[in-house]
Model the fold of this input.
Amino acid sequence: MKFPPQRARRRQQERVRGKLRHNFRHSSPKVGTPEAPGDELVQIACNVIAKASRANPADAVLRLELIKRQKIDPAARRWITESVFSYYRWYQWLDRATSVADQLRFATELQNRFDREGSNFTDPELLQKAIPEWTAKQIEVTADWVRSLQTKPVLWLRAKIGNEHKITSDLGGCSSLAEIPTTLRYNGDEDLFRSPLFHAGEFELQDLSSQLVGHLCAAAPNETWWDACAGEGGKLLHLSDLMGNKGLIWASDRAGWRLQSLKRRAARAKAFNYRVAPWDGGAKLPTKTKFDGVLVDAPCSGVGTWQRNPHARWTATLDDVLELKELQIRLLLHASAAVKPGGRLIYAVCTLTRAETVEVAARVEQELTAFKPLMLRLPLTGKESAQYCIWPQEFAGNGMFVAAWQRTD
Done:
């Protein structure tokens, strides 16, 4: 994979680099701990970076590497994960003449320094180095947004309705949002995928912004919905819970393996009010059913996930954005045929580019004359709008765009 060329460094930045290296070498605790990782942990992280590419995203490679090493304790697993992500957050600060292991250590130290003393990193420096150059052509780039990308992401959970107090009490390390009690911010150290509560289907790991999409859909019991790009079922499980496991949800995706994963997740969560039907996104729909609501959580460039998945910053391109825009429009135009009169069409993407958000929405409104914009209430603000652009710095979740329409005939 090719990354953008390294820019020339200022003398002051070189002095800072030298000071940080000195501090790292002379203040490290005992080798072999996550605070001062031994050769094995560093080598695992280096292996992830060596295997990561546009076709093999770092987060996916990381999961596979950790699956192969089940005996590594949670603290070590966290160090590996955070060091790999720090490497990509601070990629343009790293010296390519040094080994990947040294770059990893330096990126980790930069992350720690930013967490402690973020104000010492100037806005111009961050704006220049933390994101690819093409971003400014598609996004209103601000210092607040870029700074949010350099912070470690919050881990959000979604408790089943009515179970939030049990999860908070039994799991520990959780705090709930007053406006959405089932949304829990997790600050603990437990490996949640090994938690008995998780295996019992009592909660899901789901980003706050993704949960907001479900609340904006406002699916009600006994309604019929279609999750047209369901993937592995994160939003479907939320819709099912909001519907009290009543009514019916059709789940579609073009990838069969994702739908198989959805079935496993649904079984664990005890969600049964759904059917699965493949759909390639074409004009031929998987069913003749007309729906109260259709959610098109479309494939996108993923710019909204750049905090959580920093490797994606250096693999996404402007060409990808423009190509995905056309795909998103086609998906919406085709899926709209399944909305019944009075029904809702919801568009969601975890990106912030103009092409994939407001330009897609404008095209839909131009093409779908039988639909009108539908005002939705965002729980955390109480505001009502037919379109929402949710920024990471607002609520400490992914960046997300949501638009809604109602069929009038």
